[in-house]
Amino acid sequence: MKKILLITLSLLISATGMAQDTLYNDSVLEKVDSVQQEAVKRNFTNEKISDFTKSDGDTAYIKKDYASAIQIYENLLKKGESADIYYNLGNSYYKLNNIAKAILNYRRALLLEPGNSDIRANLDIAHSKTVDKVDSIPDVFFVSWIKSLINCFSVGVWAKIGILFFLLFIVALYFYVFSKRTFLKKIGFFAALFFIIITVFANVFASNEKERLLSHDSAIVMDPSITVRSTPSESGTDLFILHEGHEVKIKDNSMKAWKEIRLEDGKVGWVPTSSIEVI
Fold this sequence. Notes:
alpha+beta, Serine Threonine Protein Phosphatase 5, Tetratricopeptide repeat, SH3 type barrels, two-stranded antiparallel ribbon, 7 strands, 12% strand
């Protein structure tokens, strides 16, 4: 009987020791895991966000870490504007279903590269997710065609086209003035006339694009919904409601707390400045 008690007691002692070892090992593993996780967090937080590059943002986007990608892209934009970064930032916001921010950044990208079909396509997709559908006042065919032509290139490209055709104008003018052959004089005259016309139009288009880039007269509704009022006051008459992602033109920018806006169909009203963000 004593032997049985001794055997039972020894088994209990050994089991207790094993349990203590197991608990110790588990606690050690938990400590190691927590240390590793803390080290990863420290590595991310301690590394300055200013040290990240566009490739880091792209990597975060590919890994579906859209929040980190947004943080990196927005920091990069503080150093200088780029259509590519605005475009990627718009994509990141779209993936998080923040349609208003996506549209805002697509529009900013499009200002820098108006002829980029990828930006325009993604902007159209984001627009299809918005609530408001407003019919714009159609332009005359000729005006619409001119606008489409201007939007083909950015300010820099139109400026380069203007310089190129001005140089060609000088060459053609040289042939017209100094050539002794009548045939070359005629070619030089008509070529010079054509080149100077293209030069003038290119400079006008470049000026138009620059003015549009610097005007900051368009904005995106950022709140889920806002009530447009007849006067710049909360007591103003309710006119209509706009939802996030809708683009508006700023008609009156003289007040700090309120902006008078105009829609595509010609409707006007006042909204709080905090409810919109300028493109």
